[in-house]
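Quick illustration, no need to memorize.
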Amino acid sequence: MAGKKGSKNNVSNRGKGADLKQLDGKVVKPIMYKGERLGHGNYMAAKFEDGKLAKDDAGRPVPYKMI
C-alpha cells in the first residue's frame, strides 16, 4: 500500500491557501462584509489585524479573493 496522505487537520499538510494574504505589506484576514443596505452586496472582504477594513480608492471594502 502506498504512503498515506495524512490528516487534513495537520497544519503541515495544508497548502498555499492556508497562508495569510498581504496588502501593502500588512497581513489581512477574511471577514464577512454585509453591505447590502449600501448597495455593495454581501461578500468576504479583507480586514487588517488592527480591525480596520481594507478599502479601495472609491472607499469600498476590498474583496478578499481579489488580493
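The chain has no helices and three strands.
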